Amino acid sequence: MQEIICRHLFIRGKVQGVYYRASAQHAAIARGLTGWVRNRRDGSVEAVVNGPLAAVQAFIEWAYQGPPEARVDDVEIQDSSESDHQGFEFRATL
Q1: Does the CA dihedral 69-73-75-76 come out positive or negative?
Q2: Model's pTM, two decimal places?
């Protein structure tokens, strides 16, 4: 049985205005993950991803690169207990 995990990510750098959120949604769905993504007023992007360990790890690897126009300086990763997501959605800027 696959271990299901949830991670909360804070992505910093040039990550707004470069289709990071849309690319993150596509990357998450392609890996069978659920969760959400949003811009933050400080210029960062925040995401929560939930799913099998290997798929979450693959998403985190993607998050360090992002879409071609992005420049990721840092990804902060925290464990999360959120797990009741349906699909992968955009959330309002916080």
Answers
A1: negative
A2: 0.94
